[in-house]
Structures
1.
Amino acid sequence: MTETILILLIILGILSLEFKDLLNAVICLAIFSLLCSLLFYYLHAPDVAIAEAAVGAGVATVIFVLTINKTRRKEEVEEEE
Amino acid sequence: MDIRVLTLDIVIFILMGISVLSMVRVVIGPTSEDRMIGLNLVLAQISAILVLIAVKYNRSIYLDVALVYAILGFIGILAIARHAASREDKE
């Protein structure tokens, strides 16, 4: 089980780096933190898992999405110029 | 081995397999909306896994992680959905 989670973590980390659309990268990071929390849980550290869940699923995702909402894509800026 | 622990282990492995299948949709999904639905599915299934592990270990503190995830994951999905809606309006 731990090995499965670690392999999935590597795949999702590489994917969130490679995606061109930032929203897709944020979704991949959300699943990354979800699996990270599950890994802490499996290693018998539920307090760390609670902290990771609160930061990863709640605060980080919301702040990233709000920031993407406030900014524009590079292509759109170049079109206007 | 206790039959109860064995059953819980089997169910946990089946749920992990199902969530890996849902992650395939997150990886290949053509649009962001597909990926969002995949995230929702994976979140629900992993919450179920967390509850089942809490039952397996007989500890109540393990249930709190699932509780926190069920509340905060909803907020994250809400933010992503609102962003997708405002992007549709711009186009």
Note: The mean pLDDT of chain A is 85.
2.
Amino acid sequence: MRYTWALSLWALVLECLLVSPDASARSLAQIKKQGTLTWGGDLQGGEPYVFENPKNRKQLIGFEVEIADELGKRLGVVAKFSQHDWSTLVPSLERGDFDVILNGLEDTSDRRSRIALSAPYFVYGLTITIRNGDSYRSLEALKGHKVGTMNQTVAHSLLKVMPLEAVLYEGQQEPYADLSSGRTDAVLLDHIIAQRYGCNVKGLTCLSDDVTRGYYVMGVRKSDDTLLVALNEALKSMQSDGSLRAILERWRLWDPRQSPLSAAADASADASTDASADASADAPALAAPPEVPRFDAEQIKMFLKGAGITLALSVLAFAIASPFGMALALTRLYGGKIEKFLAGSYIEIFRGTPVLLQLYVLYYGLAPIIKLDAFVAAVLGLGLNYAAYEAEVHRGALLSIPSGQSEAAAALGLSRWQTIRHVLMPQALRTALPAVTNDFVALLKDSSLVSVITVVELTKRMTIAAVEVRSWLIPGLACAVLYFCLSYPLAAFARYLERRLEHDPARSSGKGL
Amino acid sequence: MIQLDQVVKAFDGRNVLDGISASLDEGKIACLIGPSGCGKTTLLRCMNGLEQLASGSIRISGCDILPNSNRATFSRVRQRVGFVFQEFHLFPHMTVLENIVLAPVQVRRQTRAASEKRAQELLEMVGLGGRGDARPSQLSGGQKQRVAIARALALDVKVLLLDEPTSALDPSMRQEVRNVLRDVAKEGLTMLCVTHDMPLVTTLADEIWVFDAGNIVERGDAKTILNAPKSAVARQYLQPSLAD
């Protein structure tokens, strides 16, 4: 179903790159022995799936949290949440980052061919939302029109094969905003999303008939067949003793769609009375979500934490990039033939491929060989990538030093390394300072890419908050202000350094050469 | 002290040095004169390994420079032979004192304190005592060249090679550099100085080597050549400038 913040293109590349199920997968016995069942999801999906309790940020709530806890209880273990970008849940599962996906994963044949899927725990209906007064009543009627949906969803695969123009979004709210403003003619998404983000928007109407229905299921590695059996049994017992229904009701998700999940077939009477009591399928407005949380001090605290992670990440990555870049530049300029070639190849390869791809390969691709911690992988990935850029900055700076400088050093008997160390490098660093500052500021912002390998930094924090409070304006502004607060003092400091260096040495000798 | 034997150096197939042979005794000062582009500077650069020989040999301060000489040889040569550039080439990111102590500390592994003490003496000698903490950018051209001379002497070299030490200076600053070089000459160094600056020649030279097109066309006692140049090049070159 849902939101994917990473570019789906890269998710696709991933699918091709990483079809190596992790051999170190934990068996059911190991899970029981350790006493924890780790489940993967994305907080950005927000209410009602899994999200931070606005009243207590440290606590996660949502209907999937309750299902996970209940499943854990029945397996005799504690359920533990693991944060991952939604688009990377499947590769992360295969990588062995957690035991089970429990996060609005739809049952599709594509998924079935790759991972093992459990029995359903929720029934979703694809809902068409239109502007009041428009006469479309079915998907067929929308032929030739623009229909908004989210990337990587069942709705999207449905629209793809229709003679209409599918408009793809990464978030839940934007499709409805564009529908309101007339950029699109309809939106097709899960009813959970439609009810929370579309049906209650002024000027929009949700059609009562579902286009189609499907299941949310859990996903486990194909090799974990004992775990799958245990999960299915636990889910079945939750269904028959009514605890699954109780959870869904608590989150106002129970509606006639869920009747396949009611306490087996014998509860058909219940289901019908329920349908009349809670006719939310036909009147979505009744299932309106609880009060939308506000952007409060707690949120700001989380933003500051995100900013701290962004800063730490950038500083550490640059601490790798700058010296390594200098080493590459020196090698490319003064190394032997082979060294020159190697340094040159490194620079061209790392500059010539997207940093996003490098992060994916480092985190997911190398997982069978070395399982890097997400933060470490993020620092390494950004550091290695930026080293290539720094190398060229430093190479340019080294080349700009008049040749008389190295001749003078040589004439004094300095070795090549002493010349580099005492004469060339200090001067190159000064020349490179503006470009280096520039790159650091760029890195600070590029660091938002690491959310694809599960690090929650400032931008990811902003998108989580934006979904939660149903607005991009305040979280976006807060995010922008924080980025600015991080980068501006740095730029100012660099300018101060430049002025200081300008003031005394200048280029005294390089008149001629 | 310096012995040149059939020194050949070619650029792009053209012989810039066309088999030069000459010698200079210890403590003597030779000035190399002749039209620009005739190979004087190239010869000087060959003598401390800034250029590689094509053939022939150079014996300088007990070291032999051959066409296949490597860095190890040049490293030995450079510790005994100082070089002063036309454009000074001071290190702009260091103070005057740091410029001078760099080689003693890094190359000779002398202590910083000893190196600085010697550097102060050298600065006194070139008339810049007390300017050790200045940056090159704060100095005039003449002062820069005097620092460069002190820097070249800091390794207590036996031979000093000077490549047009006064050409980049305006006339008012030339005299201060000439005076410093006159003082340095008193220390008994062997010096080879490429120059177009005739007052400098008259101040310094024991010998004059006259160059033309990659060869020495006239070589001998300074006074003799200044008074009665034999070669056409020397006459053409010296006579008008004597009026200088």
Note: Residues 123-214 of chain A form a domain with the D-Maltodextrin-Binding Protein; domain 2 fold (CATH 3.40.190.10).
3.
Amino acid sequence: MDKFTTLTGIAAPMPLVNIDTDMIIPKNFLKTIKRSGLGANLFDEMRFDREGNEIADFVLNQPQYRETQILIAGDNFGCGSSREHAPWAIADFGIKCIVSTSFADIFFNNCFKNGILPIVLPKEQVELLMKDAEKGANARMTVDLETQEITTSDGEVITFDVDSHRKHCLLNGLDDIGQTMEKAAAIDSFEATASAVRPWV
Amino acid sequence: MSPKTLYDKIWDAHVAHEADDGTCLLYIDRHLVHEVTSPQAFEGLRMAGRKVRAPEKTIAVPDHNVPTTLDREKGIENEESRIQVDALDKNAKEFGVHYYPVSDIRQGIVHIVGPEQGWTLPGMTVVCGDSHTATHGAFGALAHGIGTSEVEHVLATQTLIQKKSKNMKVEVTGKLNAGVTAKDITLAVIGETGTAGGTGYVIEYCGEAIRDLSMEGRMTVCNMAIEGGARAGLIAPDEKTFEYCKGRPHAPKGAEWEQALEYWKTLFTDEGAHFDKVITLKGEDIQPVVTWGTSPEDVLPITATVPHPEDFEGGKVDAVKRAIDYMGLTAGQKLTDIEIDTVFIGSCTNGRIEDLRAAAAILKGKKIKDGLRAMVVPGSGLVRAQAEEEGLADIFKEAGFEWRLAGCSMCLAMNPDQLAPGERCAATSNRNFEGRQGYKGRTHLVSPGMAAAAALTGHLTDVREVI
């Protein structure tokens, strides 16, 4: 997994609430057996018409947001289907950080597995960042995971919380499976005890 | 010992390792797998030279992509869908997991097959790369959806890295009125909490109206816990649960059954256990409901009208404007005036035998509205066979419904069953998102009885007028 340390880049505003994973990556792109290449179809039905032409007023099609690396999103981002194709598409497009007042649980987990940092902030702070993002390409934000700070284009600093284990994994680009396998003895011993108590499982 | 909730008890019984910061390795008893969210996980194992740790606890079945037309034995026409199903076929064999191929009568939607085959049992932890894994909570099993990286993690280690969620109690008191079903309960709860109201929680549903539901109804309720944002939904097991499990192919037998039963009877929330949030609904107040918008929280009684955006606050105002526009509706319009052109009965929410019985009871001896497209897609091959035996299939066919083979079908439209742009569907499925049932398709979520009623009249209809 790619490390996430600091990121300075363009932030795009997406204030719509309840953006679901069907919007992020529609089902016709779930038929792949690979993880790569989904960025071309990120937000496909909002971004392109049926003929494949760009819909001009969609935020990521606007010239100042084409290189977006940070999304400032409305409440409950990533709700719905568990499809990890959603964070795969987001990362493949080049977006590495999403800020919202709330995220759906499964999507939130999936982000951390793919080097994306989802940040939850109170409403007022998300609104402040939304305004900053609306300024466009000349306004760049910086997200520093080590210090847990976002710096706006005006130099205003906002701190955020992140789970310590997840922070450690993102900073170091650690693979979960490898780490868990180091605890194989604990799993073996759990299995032995559990199968004595609940042999039908 | 301090009193525990049902969730606390199941959680505590499955912690294989706990780190200082509270991050746990939760042991997984059953891992269900389907073709869409697993190919990259199996590929990951292959690349790292890893095996499936517990193939005997891993159950695979193709459901999302499979055609449900009667000629499906001739194969899947869409190349990408075929490749995905073939990949599952190959992976199941190579890694030695339990497998129900398309040709097997036991094939069906993974969340219907699991309980039907007795894989899902009380007190278990169940995961699947699918958000509707919440369904299995109806058995008092801790069940939730995971992403593909986590699918790979469970395949390799039989555990999941987790932190404990908070406890929420949703109590539905009293009796339901005629025409009101489990689907109306679960939608009414989401209408109350909103789609993010459950975020960070595991919900335990309780109260007389929940107790009175059959196992099928309880599965419908828990299925949509995820639509309210909850990690999982749970219902404490009782005699109905035990009766449902008994004799299923993978349920324990003999002395082991007795031992299991003794354990399962300890699976309830202790008196005085702490819930972080409590919501109470009166069963008598719940009416047959329908969704008007593009989020499951956009739900109202069928007797209501399309709301005005200005009735809402904050970011929801723009979302409602967008939803009304997308759905082709007018604020103030009566919901019963909304004309439909498609009816879909099926899905992991409402594709079980009881759902088909409820719809057939409305349709018996009647014909659907001329020109309407209507289909029933049973949740599994066994549900289909039972419905044929009970004469339900004939009722559907005589009424003008297509009688399909088992799969997810038009719930998410990954197979050829899709809405065309602008088409409007009364669906018994679980999501009314933009494009969910097809590009620019419009979905109204309803119970099976309401879907059948709409099929008869050609517009959204109060089921109480036709029972």
Note: Residues 158 and 318 of chain B are 43 Å apart (CA to CA).
4.
Amino acid sequence: MTEQIPAVEFRHVDKHFGKLHVLRDINLSIMPGEVVVVIGPSGSGKSTLCRTVNRLETIDSGEIYIHGELLPEEGKALAAMRSKVGMVFQSFNLFAHKTVLDNVTMGPTQVLGVKKKEAEEQAMALLARVGVADQAKKVPAQLSGGQQQRVAIARSLAMRPEVMLFDEPTSALDPEMINEVLDVIVELAREGMTMMVVTHEMGFARRVADRVLFMADGVILEEATPDEFFSNPKTDRAREFLDSIAGH
Amino acid sequence: MSAPAVKPIRDSLYEQPGPKTRRRIVVATGIAAVLVLIGIALIIRQFYITGQLDPKYWLLFTRWTTWKFLLTGFMGTLKSAFVAGVLALAGGLILMWGRLSKITPVRWVARAITEFFRGVPSLLFVYFFFIVMPTVGIKMDSFWMITLPAAMSAAGACAEVFRAGVNAVPAGQVEAAKSLGMSKTKTMLLIQLPQAIRFVVPTLISQLVIVVKDTTLAYVVSYADLLQNGRVLIANYDALVSVYLVIAIIYIVLNYLINKASVAIANRSGVKLIDVSKVSS
């Protein structure tokens, strides 16, 4: 099968925000079924890296391939590619004027052309899977942060994505709600979903990652298995970072 | 879970008054009330001196025909304002869409039209349809000669209101729609506009007050609105002050009701989208 073709591949990707060089010559392959966790200090470019995969951030040079296909720059081709890449945001971004159920059926009915009834059945199954089926008729503002983020994950899954991107999915949550969201993500990883996760949750990174990337100043400084990285970081920068958060 | 109450802005802006301030407020309120009463008394006295309270100026309001005539005018005002309001909403949407277009010339044209509609006084538009158009052989009904200008002015304002509303929709909503693979048009129609409209409904309804006031230019083209019919009454009964007073009260009540409606709708639609209890610092 397509074992050899990476699900996501960066080749010499560069990006600037004005004078700031946020991504410096990024080369990276994520294989199908692999879970890559990106960590690093704030401002290191890890969120930007994640957002370039579905072109919510454009790049200045280099190429990004998804399953061997060059990421289109605009129009229907880009929209089609985006529909295959799920994205979960730090601030949930559920559609505020729609019920939970409508949030989940929106993508399948409007983009994939799935019939409403079928989409609703699928949505209810997904909502049950992430544990919020009883909230289906509410609007997002009536849910807790943890519930909203689980709905957001269900909304992405409803598109049957080939790759999932998580951009700091628990950073906006109250501490007691973090685990209910992380558990869903771990479950997805176990089922073999290809994922790129930007996070500050080190325990979770250790549990879920096949590979950990450590970024600083727009560069991927280290790439290692979680065991290797957390027990024996190679760069001073990574050691400093781990020390600084170990105090918690 | 009950819907959270929306905190009135006044409560967030001002501190609760302390005992001294409360006393001062009571005194100031008393003085202000006395001054207002004196003012009203002076006006009535002046009316009395100049003979405006003479029954001959007021007896016409005991006749059904007077009220029927005013009601006809009132319906004319409502009809013109309603049609102008609907046209302004549609025109405003189109202009707003144009201004957000990716195609530069479309953006320019929409911008130029918006600024033109907004910047030119409605009266000039009325003159245009009333005086200029007939010279090129286009004769319109007086209804349209007043309704179109009112609609044009309001459309320019509505376009800006809609644009503000669309810009107020958080960027994350658009990103979420994009990440699902939604097209720009679908994102606008399904995500941005429905939320934008909820944000701006109160402002749009207040805009209707301006439309209502614009329709009073109807006298220029002799369209039978409330004010025009009032002028006919004045001519017939030689009762200037009394008729204008009654008409002013009718306009005030109408516009007050429109404002009330906008506040009611604002309270209803605001609750669904914004949960103040969850907005953290």
Note: The radius of gyration of chain B is 24 Å.
